[in-house]
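hey can u check if this looks right to u? its 120 residues, i copy pasted from the old doc so theres a chance i mangled smth
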Amino acid sequence: MRQSPSIVPTDRLDRDIYLVLEDFGARAGCAWRETDEADTDLEAVLQGLLSGQYVYPVRIVCFNAGEGWSRDATSDVAAALAQRAVDSDGEISTALQDFIAANATRRFDVQLAVPLQGAA
């Protein structure tokens, strides 16, 4: 039986790769976001979430094909987002606040800033 080629680049297997499952609404449903290989590390995903590149994240998975493991990283990423929002006192979207509230394992005593619609 012929074996299919791997979709994972063989020369860059040994690193943690993060992928985001996003909800595109009732008609489109959820899908794993296609992204450039350079934007699959934790820092790039955090920046993408904070900048609004991902609007309604549902789940985030992390895998390392070189080491042969995968895991659900949703709660870790939600906690990291919450900490960044607290540290930077930055505004985050309501959808991202909901994601953090639903998934962060740590609770934060600081009220996160919410952007006001129509405010200049």
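Residues 108-112 have pLDDT under 50 and may be disordered.
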